[in-house]
Amino acid sequence: MSSKLNLRLLAAVMLAAALPLCVKGAPLEVTPTDLPQGEASGEEEEDRRISDPPRDSNIIEIWERVLKSTESHQQEFDEEFQGNVKYDLLDKDKPRSFPAKCPNCTLSKEACLQSLAHGMLVYTVLLKHVDREYHNSSIVAAVKAGIPQLITQIKAKMRNADSVAAPTSSEEQQLLKELDRPDLFYRKMMAHRILRSIHIFLVDGKRSYQKWMSKKKPESFYISKPKHQEYTKTVA
Ligand SMILES: *[C@@H]1O[C@H](CO)[C@@H](O)[C@H](O)[C@H]1NC(C)=O
Ligand SMILES: *[C@@H]1O[C@H](CO)[C@@H](O)[C@H](O)[C@H]1NC(C)=O
Q: What are the boundaries of the region Disordered (predicted)?
């Protein structure tokens, strides 16, 4: 009985000892946005963030590098299956968890960026399945190298970058569980479905991204506002 108590005590002590570690790690994540005293300099910070290196040409170059790699997927697929499995099959029976096209990209620039970053984070998880089935895929290597860079640059352009979070570990498990079946052919086809789907997502996403980025700054929208005020004044 006393040994049970000791165990419980030990667990409590260990938990208490582990806690400071967790807390110590937390401020690291919080610091970039946790600048309450510097509220006034916030705008300067924002301006600098927008004009600094993350340039569009850069991000487009990364995007194109990844796409060049995913474009070779059909050829690899046809070589592997020797024409016995049709490539078009990959567009069928796609799990709902695969973000196909950028879901919110027509709504607004912010919604588009959020949706892009979110989709890329989901694919980061799904790629683990591809990795499991095809250890040395050069496509996976290229996508894994490029996607974190794309996410960083997209988040730098978002007003509320914190709103996009990576899937939690239980969400991650859930995503991967539905792909992990005993049937080898099923697993391989799923791996190929992911590569096919990520290619479509990136093609579509790049187009949407460029469309929003080429739009005039939102300030121009407000030019019409004073006119409207004048009008209401004269009417009144
Ligand atoms: C798309 O927009 C809806 C409504 O604003 C939101 O609930 C959803 O989370 C968004 N999806 C993504 C992937 O950003
Ligand atoms: C795959 O990678 C592993 C380790 O990096 C290597 O040992 C193996 O030879 C590679 N296989 C192929 C088919 O390239």
A: 30-54
